[in-house]
Design the sequence.
């Protein structure tokens, strides 16, 4: 009985460790720098992400992928080998990026694609020069042979869990993770970059792999590297792509025993609400009251690289940079609310949903250019993570720490406000009427700079000033036609004005 208790405690320790993003200090948000080059990510960690309080970066798949005509973004999700060589750079530049980002307290998470290899294509040539005979499911650069794959079949019935996990997703040849060779190959690949200082992994298409197979793979992963500053015995952070909107055979709860799960319902519901289809007042019990995963099991987002293009889950309800006011409001709510581990998206502009990142004619990705005056990205990159309204809410979340929601107020419609204990306060107006009234902020008396419209420079606010009285009450003035629809203040030096 004593031995069994030890085993159970050890298992719980490992699982909880795999739900920990290992952020430094009070950092609490990651950004997906979609399709960025390693050198550019390292530069961004040092000049912006570290100073602005971001906790980590999700990078696009780093291993060799199939080169497709016109270089669409989704070629990254067709692996040809596990050599670290992609449009983002090689293993040397990757290792340098991880080292530089860790040095400024920004963790790196790798998007891994291990459910499948490529679809059938001839010739099949990869970003590292490897070749494959895809019709015979022969990938010598791994190596994988036909024995390492499930028999070819298509997914037609999502109420059949076996079909979903054993058949081919969109014609991509489906690996059999129950085979020892497949497992060991995956483990060796992940361990190779864990040892370089990576903090964790996003597991693409986890829904299409058996939880028991993933459990074995995860259990064989190395602890995080002490040499790169992680505490001894730290487990890799694992967050898994499991699209579960209800009504299918596979449930997201099947994967929470292994790590966190990306909660797709989060962005879908918030997209619907902030598009005006339902009132903001419904968010009073946001979280488990909406059938979402427990907060400690969830990684959340407003949009991702798939659903902002109409793929995956959510359809037209998904908010993206293309509807900036509602997008910024929804992201502000995401970062102000304590539910889940938050991730923000950083995109490139697109009209064609298949188009890849900004690139030269030879296929080389164009580095984002930063405007020296505004700090915004240029030459084809959106960089939502640099938008002032988003980057300053990342700091808001840091200041709020783990304090609970208090002082909830709503107008029984589309205006809401709440505090995070006595550390931070936010008000949002998605109504046709102006919000002009006294509200309890929970904050100490003082003058605060609204971080949405401005920031503190030489103890002066470049935006709207909010006066909080001795009772914690402030007059909130948020017109219906305000550019951003949000007021946010907190006790940090970025918001609190000295008397």
Sequence:
């Amino acid at each position: 009985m004593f031995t069994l208790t030890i085993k159970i405690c050890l298992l719980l320790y490992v699982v909880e460790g795999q739900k920990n993003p290992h952020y430094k200090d009070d950092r609490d948000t990651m950004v997906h720098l979609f399709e960025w080059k390693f050198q550019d990510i390292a530069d961004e960690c040092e000049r912006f992400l570290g100073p602005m309080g971001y906790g980590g970066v999700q990078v696009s798949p780093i291993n060799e992928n199939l080169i497709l005509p016109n270089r669409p973004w989704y070629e990254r999700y067709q692996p040809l080998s596990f050599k670290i060589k992609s449009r983002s750079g090689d293993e040397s530049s990757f290792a340098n990026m991880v080292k530089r980002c860790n040095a400024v307290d920004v963790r790196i998470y790798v998007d891994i694609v291990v459910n499948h290899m490529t679809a059938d294509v001839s010739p099949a040539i990869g970003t590292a020069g490897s070749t494959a005979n895809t019709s015979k499911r022969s990938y010598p650069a791994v190596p994988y042979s036909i024995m390492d794959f499930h028999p070819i079949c298509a997914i037609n019935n999502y109420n059949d869990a076996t079909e979903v996990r054993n058949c081919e997703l969109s014609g991509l040849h489906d690996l059999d993770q129950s085979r020892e060779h497949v497992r060991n190959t995956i483990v060796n690949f992940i361990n190779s970059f864990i040892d370089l200082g990576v903090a964790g992994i996003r597991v693409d298409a986890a829904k299409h792999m058996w939880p028991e197979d993933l459990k074995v793979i995860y259990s064989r992963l190395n602890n995080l590297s002490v040499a790169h500053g992680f505490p001894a015995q730290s487990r890799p952070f694992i967050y898994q792509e499991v699209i579960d909107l209800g009504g299918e055979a596979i449930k997201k709860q099947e994967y929470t025993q292994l790590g966190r799960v990306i909660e797709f319902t989060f962005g879908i519901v918030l997209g619907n609400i902030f598009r005006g289809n339902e009132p903001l007042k419904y968010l009073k019990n946001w979280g488990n009251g909406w059938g979402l995963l427990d907060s400690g099991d969830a990684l959340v987002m407003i949009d991702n690289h798939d659903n902002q293009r109409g793929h995956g889950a959510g359809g037209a309800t998904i908010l993206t940079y293309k509807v900036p006011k509602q997008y910024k409001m929804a992201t502000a709510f995401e970062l102000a609310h304590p539910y889940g581990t938050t991730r923000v998206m950083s995109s490139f502009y697109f009209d064609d949903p298949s188009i890849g990142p900004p690139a030269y004619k030879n296929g080389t990705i164009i580095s984002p250019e930063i405007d020296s005056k505004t700090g915004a990205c240029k030459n084809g990159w959106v960089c939502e993570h640099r938008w002032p309204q988003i980057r300053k809410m990342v700091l808001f979340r840091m200041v709020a720490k783990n304090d609970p929601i208090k002082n909830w107020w709503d107008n029984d419609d589309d205006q809401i406000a709440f505090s995070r204990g006595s550390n931070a306060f936010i008000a949002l107006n998605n109504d046709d009427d102006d919000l002009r009234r006294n509200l309890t902020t929970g904050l100490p008396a003082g003058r605060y700079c609204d971080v949405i419209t401005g920031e503190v420079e030489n103890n002066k606010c470049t935006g709207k000033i909010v006066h909080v009285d001795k009772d914690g009450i402030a007059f909130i003035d948020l017109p219906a036609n305000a550019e951003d629809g949000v007021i946010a203040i907190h006790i940090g030096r970025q918001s609190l004005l000295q008397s």
